[in-house]
Amino acid sequence: MKTMKALVKSKSEEGIWMEEVPVPQCGHNDVLIKVKKTAICGTDIHIYNWDKWAQQTIPVPMVVGHEFSGVIENLGSEVQGLALGDRVSAEGHVTCGHCRNCRAGKRHLCRNTIGVGVNRPGCFAEYVCVPASNVFKLTDAISDDVGSILDPLGNAAHTALSFNLVGEDVLITGAGPIGMMAVAIARHAGARHIVITDLNDYRLDIADKLGATRTVNVSKEKLDDVMAELNMTEGFDVGLEMSGSPAAFREMLAKMNHGGHIALLGILPDDTQIDWNMVVFKGLKLKGIYGREMFETWYKMSSMLQSNLDITPAITHHFKIDDFQKGFDVMRTGQSGKVILDWT
């Protein structure tokens, strides 16, 4: 039996471990991909930390990870439209294909979604097997590094492109990797003022490089003062909530213009309270975001990257896979953007 190196959640405790595991066996409609680059996601940190969510969700032992790029090594007998040697990434949400939304072409709303590296073996390995319908070919304009972060870029794109941004004033709460990449997308799409808030100066600095009009550390500055500085008199037109912070969300609601639109990607605590009068009397529209539209978001991402969208400032660290622990350590400090692990 052929084996491979892989990062495995092999114990029900904090940590992740490098092990030799069998190379996955693929079915008729699957693709075996030789992994070149992977990226560490916030989800992977939850799994590493073995928090309450991870304990309730992750089967042990299992290969984890879901952000990657690589090359097709083998094809199932029924696979069409792909070829050996194609450079690819893949959608990490595997959908059922038979529920109402799947049959209507709205796979991102599948009620039976399972996640690569969450509910089924992932990509932190020399090889990963995924359904051919989840594979996305990379153009020459997309490097292996950028190809490995299309999953979080897709979250940013799905969120940011939910509403018209041309000439609009945009407030982004949360400057994590997805929030900072949403800055670049909003700038690329023609927004006027793009203001992003956080408590982390390191990440706010990256957001500045990605095109923010103004970055705001809310522990040091008031958003009202920044709005006045930008001569904003009516509030923000579009809000992108990326932080999962009740305080940030409440401030966003207060600073939205009447008739504004908010896309919610951050996961707020169960007991989050807001002033619903803000929603009702301002006529705000709220939209929940989960994952990426399959595959419209992927085509939008690819097209933007081919037309000079530059998200490379969001990639701050690279490590060879044997140094994976250093990658997880730096991610856990919060003093990073995207961290790439090199399997070549």
Automatic annotation (TrEMBL):
Subcellular location: Cytoplasm
UniProt site positions, description: Important for catalytic activity for the proton relay mechanism but does not participate directly in the coordination of zinc atom: 151
Pathway: Amino-acid degradation; L-threonine degradation via oxydo-reductase pathway; glycine from L-threonine: step 1/2
Residues where Zn(2+) 2 binds: 96, 99, 102, 110
Membrane-crossing segments per the record: none
Entry-linked InterPro entries: ADH-like_C (IPR013149), ADH-like_N (IPR013154), ADH_Zn_CS (IPR002328), ER (IPR020843), GroES-like_sf (IPR011032), L-Threonine_3-DHase (IPR004627), NAD(P)-bd_dom_sf (IPR036291), Zn_alcohol_dh (IPR050129)
Cofactor: how and how many bound: Binds 2 Zn(2+) ions per subunit.
Keyword Nucleotide-binding: no
Binding-site residues for Zn(2+) 1, renumbered to this chain: 41, 66-67
GO CC entries: cytoplasm
Chain ranges of the Enoyl reductase (ER) domain: 15-341
Name under which the protein is recorded: L-threonine 3-dehydrogenase
Organism, scientific name: Maridesulfovibrio ferrireducens
Lineage: Bacteria, Pseudomonadati, Thermodesulfobacteriota, Desulfovibrionia, Desulfovibrionales
